[in-house]
Amino acid sequence: MIDGLAGVKNSAGTIVFACSKCRTYPDHAYGAPNKDQLVYMLVCQKCGRTLGEWVSTEQREKELREFAKRVEPLT
Ligand SMILES: [Zn+2]
Question: What is the rounded end-to-end Cα distance, in angstroms, of the chain?
Answer without folding.
Answer: 24
